[in-house]
TrEMBL record:
<dbReference type="GO" id="GO:0006412">
    <property type="term" value="P:translation"/>
</dbReference>
<dbReference type="GO" id="GO:0005762">
    <property type="term" value="C:mitochondrial large ribosomal subunit"/>
</dbReference>
<dbReference type="GO" id="GO:0003729">
    <property type="term" value="F:mRNA binding"/>
</dbReference>
<dbReference type="Pfam" id="PF00572">
    <property type="entry name" value="Ribosomal_L13"/>
</dbReference>
<dbReference type="GO" id="GO:0017148">
    <property type="term" value="P:negative regulation of translation"/>
</dbReference>
<dbReference type="InterPro" id="IPR005823">
    <property type="entry name" value="Ribosomal_uL13_bac-type"/>
</dbReference>
<keyword id="KW-0687">Ribonucleoprotein</keyword>
<protein>
    <recommendedName>
        <fullName>Ribosomal protein L13</fullName>
    </recommendedName>
</protein>
<dbReference type="GO" id="GO:0003735">
    <property type="term" value="F:structural constituent of ribosome"/>
</dbReference>
<dbReference type="InterPro" id="IPR036899">
    <property type="entry name" value="Ribosomal_uL13_sf"/>
</dbReference>
<dbReference type="InterPro" id="IPR005822">
    <property type="entry name" value="Ribosomal_uL13"/>
</dbReference>
<comment type="similarity">
    <text>Belongs to the universal ribosomal protein uL13 family.</text>
</comment>
<keyword id="KW-0689">Ribosomal protein</keyword>
Length: 128
């Protein structure tokens, strides 16, 4: 079964400028397969790799983490009733415009965003 690649819908100039600022020397690219994985456990594994805590040379003040790629984000699992009871909320800036979307709706719209929001929430609060 072939999977289709998602296209990048952001500003390419900003994305490339951000990549140029990253020192890619010494970084490894880690690939995670999300098929059948529980969302929280996968996010904590990715957060450990991004922080560099899996390396023997880890120090809290240095950024030694590796880059991560997640495959099959649409096949990630959640436990319990999170699919219907978990909501992502954001404010548009206008009065009374607090928007919310359930995890199920977010998974149908953009499943990669679910993992993008879960990983930083696994970091220590000083990093975010």
């Amino acid at each position: 079964m072939a999977t289709t690649a998602q296209t990048f819908s952001g500003n390419m100039k900003k994305a490339l400028a951000g990549l140029r600022r990253i020192n890619l020397e010494g970084l490894r690219w880690r690939v995670f397969d999300a098929k059948g994985q529980v969302l929280g456990r996968l996010a904590s594994q990715i957060a450990t790799v991004v922080q560099g805590k899996d390396k023997p040379t880890y120090t809290p003040y240095r950024e030694d983490g590796d880059m991560c790629i997640v495959l099959n984000a649409q096949d990630v699992c959640v436990t319990g009733r999170k699919l219907t009871n978990k909501f992502y909320r954001w404010h548009t800036g206008y009065v009374g415009h607090l928007k919310e979307r359930s995890l199920k709706a977010q998974m149908t719209k953009d499943p990669t965003e679910v993992i993008r929001k879960a990983v930083p929430r696994c970091f220590p609060k000083q990093i975010t």
